[in-house]
Request: fold
Amino acid sequence: MLKQRIKLTDPSTISLLLVNIIAIIFAVKEMWGIGMLLWLYWAQSLTIGVFTFLKIIYIKNPFIYEGKECKKIIPTNRWGQIAYAFFFALHYGGFHAVY
Reply:
């Protein structure tokens, strides 16, 4: 099983935490309904998907190291990375369209 640690120094982690804290503060202060929060988190999830798509396309080291093993998760050639990114976008976008 792949274990990842959350890095509290990572800018994306910090921004995600801050945006969620601000959203909760606004939701309580302005008495937002559940629908507003659902739209907000749906948009946030979509934004995360867009950045993940870009990371897949521009990744420099497409390997994950797990213990002593090295598992290839993204094809190393350019066209393979692009195909993998669009495969991700199709599925991730499809799930977002459904819900």
About this structure: Helices lie at 11-30, 34-58, 78-98.
